Amino acid sequence: MYKVMFKNNNFIERSILGALSFLKESIFADEYAWRPGFLQSLDPRIKGVTFLLFILQILFTKKIPVLLCLYALCLILAKASRINLGFFLKRTWVFVPLFSLFVAIPAIFSIFTPGEPLAVFKIAGFSLVITRQGLSGAGLFLARVVTSVSFAVLLSITTRHFALLKVLRVFKIPQVFVMTFGMCYRYIYLFVEIIENTYTAVKSRCGAGIHYRGGQRIVAWNIAGLWQRSYRLSENVYQAMLSRGYSGEPAVLNDFEVRLKDWLWLLAVLGLALPVFYYG
Amino acid sequence: MDNNYIFELKDAHFSYMGKYPALRGIDITVRQGEQIAVIGANGCGKSTLLHILDGLIFPDRGSFKAFGKELKEDAFNRADFSRDFRKKVGLVFQNPDVQLFCPTVKEDIVFGPLQLGVEKGEIQRRLEGLVSVLNIGDLLERPPQQLSIGEKRKVAIASTLIIEPEIILLDEPTAGLDPQTTRCIIDLLIQANESGKTIITSTHDLHIVEEISDTVYVFSPEKRIVKSGCPHEVLADEQLLKDNNLLHIHSHRHRDKSHIHPHTHLEHHG
Fold first, then answer.
1. CB-neighbour burial class of residue B135 (10 A; exposed 0-12, middle 13-18, buried 19+)
2. Residue B9's closest CA among B33, B30, B28, B25?
3. Is the separation of the CB atoms in A270 and A53 below 8 Å?
4. Which residues in B15-41 are b (16+ Cβ under 10 Å) and which e?
5. Mean pLDDT of A268-276
6. pTM more than 0.80
7. Per DSSP, what are the bridge partners of residue B2?
């Protein structure tokens, strides 16, 4: 019996579609950045600095209630920025916090964190003791991860990606790197389109009846083809840059504008950060 | 400048990687304010010619003079020469995805003048003018990948025109466009030429040739110029067009009768 390439349970198809849908989701996430909302209306540089301050507060505080307050503030900001909370929670809780939970589980036991016992389990003759200190340490770790991931995601979905890249300039990242990141971001979509079209073209000509070895060959050709196209494209893009006067030192448009609202927001975040740094 | 030529190519040869010939013995002269069309089938060397005229690649053999002086690659190592040349000559690439590499349309359009040190107020003035002529105001904040092909082409043209070059090179500017966008681009080129700009367009769309050129160069699949002359004369030479893959045999029906004839431009407008 034939093993076919394009069946629903096929690894290659799932990988291609998974990668494409992830990238498409990024486009979808960019849509939030275009909505009129509180965070979207702030200057990206001020927003970037204040979110960095939030993340520093999260890293320096040792109190779970403070972290929970910051997390609640993050959710309020998301709501004020017209972000669908279901989408936001899904995006922030999947992967990193769940992964962290698995990492943190061993820390709750006395083997790693000795202290006051809270509960004792016996598994195959071994006794596992959960300690108050272990539980509190793991809780603090998890709360930190969730809150910082939430702020990072909130920043990325309420800021247009190109503006986010420009914020890097505030942190003295050289312009040429920022520009290269921007170009990478732009051309990833072009390649996504090419992969998608190639995949559809192969499927339309071959249907599902390709032996898996043939499928592997097609994928290998596509990888080679894509590499050649990207190489050619990079040469052409460089020529297009030269043609318009690029000489190695890119000059870019800086049309950001800091308004009163941005300064008030910065002051408010500084006002919040000082007590957290001092008491937290 | 000798004979007032802005570009002068003599017996120019070019090959990619030294083994794939793209141009064989090309002779072309261009005067200020001329409208030139370079026509030929796919792969006949039209794009290569435009890249040479834009100083992006250089002939392997033969001579290339720009503004009366022999142009060599090392001339572009001098910042003042490079800046001056780029201000004078603008190229609209065949593939707009190559030309639109910035994260937003606005950044793409202003990229050229920013590199060339044009003052910001002046850039804004030029941008507003182009946006209203090309009707692309709604696109400014959008990423180029979200645009249709027609929109991309308009933006690519805007990104070259904003430099206000004296010589505009266009590589198949109307390929794959709907009639309305094609019309808009042709009107823009006619207007630019009327204001004294030199326009050099490569195309295989014979319908636009008469409007956008005073002189036509026909390229053969062998990468040579086989004829040059006024558009009417060139387009009337059916055999020449057929020999160079620029004319197709057209079969169609009138009521119940079907007949076959070569599809030419002049029949409809001549």
1. exposed
2. B28
3. yes
4. beeeeeebbbebebbbbebbbbbbbbe
5. 90
6. no
7. none
The strand ranges marked E within chain B are 5-16, 20-31, 35-39, 61-66, 69-70, 89-92, 167-171, 198-203, 215-219, 225-229, 248-254, 257-263
A161 touches chain B (CB under 8 A): yes
Report the distance separating Cα B222 and Cα B104, nearest Å.
Answer: 40
Q: Write down the H helix ranges in B67-178.
A: 79-88, 96-99, 105-115, 120-134, 149-161
The total number of residues shown for chain B amounts to 270
> For residue A187, which residues of chain B lie inside 8 Å, CB to CB?
101
Q: What is the CATH number of domain B2-269?
A: 3.40.50.300
Choosing among B95, B98, B108, B142, which should be mutated to test the A contact, i.e. which has the most A CBs within 10 A? B98
* Minimum-distance CB partner of A190 among B97, B104, B106: B97
pLDDT in tens, A213-236: 777 777 788 888 888 888 888 889
Cα dihedral B49, B52, B57, B61 sign: positive
**Out of B82, B93, B145, closest to residue A240 by CB:** B93
A189 touches chain B (CB under 8 A): yes
Specify which residues A203 forms β-bridges with.
none
Between the alpha carbon of residue A239 and those of residues A180, B93, B118, B203, B255, the distances in Å are 15, 10, 21, 20, 52
For residue A172, report the phi and psi dihedrals to the nearest 5 degrees: 65, 25
Residues of A in contact with B85 (CB under 8 A): none
Tell me A211's DSSP state. Answer: B
Residue from B208, B206, B100 nearest B149 by CA? B100
Question: Do strands B167-171 and B198-203 pair parallel, antiparallel, or not at all (unpaired)?
Answer: parallel
pLDDT in tens, B119-137: 999 999 999 999 998 889 9
> Is A254 part of the contact surface with chain B (CB cutoff 8 Å)?
no
Write down the domain spans for chain B.
Answer: 2-269
B160 to A185: CB separation less than 8 angstroms, yes or no:
no
Q: Is the pLDDT of residue A168 over 60?
A: yes
User: Around Cβ A79, how many Cβ atoms within 10 Å?
Assistant: 14
Please choose, from the candidates A240, A250, A237, the residue with its C-alpha nearest in 3D space to the C-alpha of residue B169: A240
Write out the two tokens for A272: 């919040």
Structure tokens at B130: 């182009």
By CB atoms closer than 10 A (0-12, 13-18, 19+), residue B170 is buried
Instruction: Give me the residue from A165, A186, A245 closest to B145, CB to CB.
Output: A186
What is residue B168's predicted lDDT score, i.e. its pLDDT?
97
As a whole number of Å, the CA-based R_g of chain B is 19
- SS3 of residue B153 by DSSP: helix
